Amino acid sequence: MHLLSVNLGRATPSEHTDAPDGTGIDKHPADGPVRVAAPGPKGSGGSALAGDAVCDLRHHGGNDQAVYAYAREDLDDWERELGRGLRNGVFGENLTTSGLDVSGAKIGERWRIGPDLVLEVTSPRIPCRTFAGWLGERGWVKRFTQAAAPGAYLRVVEPGGIRAGDPVEIVYRPDHEVTVAFLFRAEMLEPELLPRVLAAGEALHPEARAKALARTGDRGRQGTAGS
Predict the structure, then answer these.
(1) How far apart are CA 62 and CA 92, in angstroms?
(2) Higher-confidence residue: 159 or 47?
(3) 70-to-40, 103, 153, 200 alpha-carbon distances in Å
(4) Which residues, in sequence order, are CB contacts of 214 under 8 Å at separation 6+?
(5) Is the pTM value of this prediction over 0.85?
């Protein structure tokens, strides 16, 4: 398991978002090492990767969505499905991986990348109109949702520098059923699964935890969620 590329984006104007600076979804592989550190809370913190733009801080970035990873194997599947080439970074992912089942990772799972960086899986990527507009594929949000291979957001546990070719090691895998794909299905396709995602505990993205608690009717515990 290793990184094929570490991808960074610049702010680009887009008709598919109302964010003043546009979008940073158009990411390209970095030539050298990239520093990764917790960016700060959602709403003020952007990407964990130095030099990577997050333009709409209302919906993207922050400590619990600090890094986005997507598997090259899933990109290859989409290439066959769409009949077009898809370069590393085209889904807006910061990390394009090889040999790692990203959507099969468990919430709370921890990865060591390179000598220092440790990341923790928090949630799936939820498709939006900016993503759909960027790819230009008809019915993209529905197609991406039905495939249920969303890739993973991660938070930074220990900062560090990374580069293409660095090994990825799973250093902790929790003992519950809640994978990234499971949580995605619960949020997007099968809401009856939402109560079961609470088994992932405090590692859950606070917004996913709140949604699951609302489903159970236990709204009083939502204020204790988050990290």
Answers:
(1) 16
(2) 159
(3) 22, 8, 9, 21
(4) 222
(5) yes
